[in-house]
Design goal:
By secondary structure, the chain is of the alpha/beta class. It has 23 helices and 16 strands. Strand 4, helix 12 and strand 5 form a beta-alpha-beta unit. This is Hydroxylamine reductase.
Length: 646
């Protein structure tokens, strides 16, 4: 792995050595010493997101020495979600969540999630995640006492699934959440006994753990959930900037763990990944934070995720062959049908096997479109195409689809009555009232498909192309490099990420449409649906397509490999390439990909349509000053700046 990313990591490692945290307090925008040390000094003021009252917040100087700020007011000033608690007589809201971009008014959900998550499920997720951190604390302690495998493979898979289930639009089923919580409590008890036995065997004292490891939920679930919910955890830190980094690390780890679960499904794991994962989760569980460690862990999470995405890429290619450029149909074919949504290639393969020779056509949906590029999957003649677009359109698309639907991973939304009786979930996915299938037993799905009419006629043929993973692109690297040297390719753009329902996300479609003909667009994840059915043609004077669909969101690995190869060929780093990033942010997988790019030292990333609600102005200022992270803006102005390398 080191060789794969060495070109890109060089500048990041150089920057990481600059500046040592100081314990001396000075005035300035960054009042926290570790933050100030990490950020380059700057004379400009960074505007933060608007408050609910419509006024703008700005990063301000440290209050005069001796002035004491109320903790709640301090948090409300830095993180608008805390405004609901600020002031005398305010109470803890029903729920608190701001882990994704669609959060209410861009500040946070406090009654019900915009995603549809109820206050009950939000509290269950808070408790479950707190217990997962406890399991990680025990894993670290066992490892330190000499345990070769602190947690069994089965226990680690539970940690992966339970954490994955907390991601946006994955699991809304209260009954399933009760099961996760009960299992986590049982595991924590077992691990406590195992730790004592390990200490006795090593003739060492039993480590005294704190935080989540010893937290007792008590009989009142509501009270217990509030104790580990966002508000109380935040106020316990007493510093909104520290808490902002805690949440950045938390959501990054959620994304990392989701990818690790995808890789494990493909039988690709790495014990060192789990050790580092437990180290960081355990640190969060211990609840003893300092700014420097949090900053380092955020970048470390990004580094570990590079290895996880490599495992996932290798696992998919080992099982199905490396993706190849493939033209696929995006309209319906007459016949009975099944729709498979999400990310899981193994589930798609199992559905293809279960429906083979039964007269049932299989369609992909959402993030499974890139499956058509894998030789081991495209060989099935009844994998006839991709139906629909990104996740947020599913209520319309699923209602119109005349067959059963399988949701393998995120995203799932509350099903409409019109298709509630023909939608199924697997793995970490859950919704109350939706039938959950275990062990890839797809017999009910197949039977229902046979009982339904399916599409009664062929639709007009339309196509798109996928399969431009790093192997495919690097296979023509000599042609690409020659085209750059000859001036035929002026610039590369990576335009992609998670899509969403906001109109502001049309920015990405407008940007792609405005990219000059002598430029190449790399795209990935469901953000591609904003423009992937357009005809972009080839770069004039070459046979190189102007639009290259790299794959799913986790195929950011391929994009990074492509960038690394180009950087090596031109003897520069990624920031020296004619390459710009415009990323569409929604949830925690996007968060960890951002951290991976920051670990590699990538500059000038444009992120939108809104910046994460959990970033305080000070933390945002750090990212702006250190990496020139910026929000998306006016398409014409952004495009002009990108073409100038800004």
């Amino acid at each position: 792995m080191a060789s794969s990313y060495s070109v890109l990591r060089a500048s990041a490692l150089l920057r990481a050595t600059r500046g040592v945290a100081s314990s001396t307090t000075v005035s300035g925008r960054i009042r926290t010493s570790a933050l100030r040390a990490a950020a380059a000094t700057s004379s400009h003021t960074i505007r933060a997101r608007s408050s609910s009252s419509g006024s703008n917040r700005y990063i301000t100087s440290t209050p005069p020495r001796g002035q004491q700020l109320d903790v709640q007011e301090k948090f409300a000033d830095a993180l608008p979600i805390f405004e609901t608690m600020a002031g005398t007589g305010r109470h803890t809201p029903q729920m608190a969540c701001f882990q994704c971009e669609q959060t209410f008014h861009g500040t946070g959900c406090v009654v019900e999630g915009v995603c549809g998550k109820t206050a009950e499920v939000a509290k269950q997720q808070d408790v479950a995640l707190h217990l997962v951190k406890a399991l990680a604390q025990y894993a670290v302690a066992l490892k330190e006492l000499g345990a070769d495998q602190p947690l069994t493979a089965e226990e680690t898979r539970f940690v992966l699934e339970a954490t994955f289930a907390t991601l946006t639009n994955v699991n809304f089923d209260p009954a399933r959440w009760n099961e996760y919580i009960e299992r986590a409590l049982e595991m924590r008890t077992q691990l406590a006994k195992r730790l004592q036995a390990q200490a006795e065997a090593a003739k060492k004292p039993v480590p005294q753990l704190g935080g989540a490891a010893v937290w007792t939920p008590g009989a009142d679930f509501e009270q217990a959930a509030n104790e580990v919910g966002l508000f109380q955890r935040g106020l316990k830190t007493a510093d909104p900037d520290v808490f902002s980094l805690v949440e950045l690390l938390t959501y990054g780890l959620k994304g990392l763990i989701a990818y690790a679960e995808h890789a494990a499904v493909l039988e690709k794991t790495d014990p060192s990944v789990f050790d580092k994962m437990y180290e960081m989760l355990g640190y969060l569980g211990a609840e003893q934070f300092d700014m420097g460690t949090l900053l380092n862990y955020c970048l470390k999470a990004g580094e570990v995720n590079l290895r996880v995405m490599e495992l996932l890429s290798d696992g998919a290619s080992a099982r199905y062959g490396a993706p190849v450029p493939t033209k696929l149909r995006t309209t319906a074919v007459k016949g009975k049908c099944v729709l498979v949504s999400g990310h899981d290639l193994r589930d798609l393969e199992a559905v293809l096997e279960a429906t083979k020779d039964k007269g049932i056509n299989v369609y992909t949906h959402g993030e499974l479109l890139p499956a058509h590029g894998y030789p081991g999957l495209k060989k099935y003649p009844h994998l006839v195409g991709n139906y629909g677009g990104a996740w947020m359109l599913q209520k319309i698309e699923f209602a119109a689809f005349p067959g059963p639907i399988l949701v393998t991973t995120n995203c799932i939304l509350e099903p409409r009555k019109s298709y509630r009786d023909r939608i199924y979930s697997v793995n970490a996915v859950g919704y109350n009232g939706v039938r959950h299938l275990e062990d890839r037993n797809f017999a009910p799905l197949v039977q229902q498909a046979l009982e339904m009419d399916g599409f009664v006629a062929d639709e007009k043929e339309q196509y798109t192309t996928t399969g431009f993973g790093h192997n495919a692109v690097l296979g023509i690297a000599d042609k690409v490099i020659s085209a750059v040297k000859e001036g035929k390719i002026r610039h590369f753009f990576l335009i992609g990420g998670c899509d969403g329902s906001e109109g502001e996300r049309n920015y990405y479609a407008e940007l792609a449409g405005a990219v000059p003909e002598d430029c190449v667009i790399l795209t990935l994840a469901c953000g591609k649906y904003r423009f992937n059915k357009r005809e972009f043609g080839v770069v004039p004077g070459t046979a190189i397509p102007r639009l290259l669909d790299v794959g799913q969101c986790n195929d950011a690995h391929s994009a990074i490999q492509i960038a690394a190869a180009l950087a090596g060929a031109f003897k520069t780093d990624v920031n020296g390439l004619p390459l710009s990033f415009a990323l569409s942010y929604l949830e925690q997988k996007a968060t960890i990909i951002l951290l991976s790019l920051l670990h590699l030292g990538v500059q000038n990333i444009r992120l939108g349509p809104r910046l994460p609600a959990f970033l305080t102005p000070n933390v945002l200022n750090l990212l702006v000053e250190k990496y020139n992270l910026m929000p998306v803006g006016d398409v014409k102005q952004d495009l002009a700046a990108m073409l100038e390398g800004k």
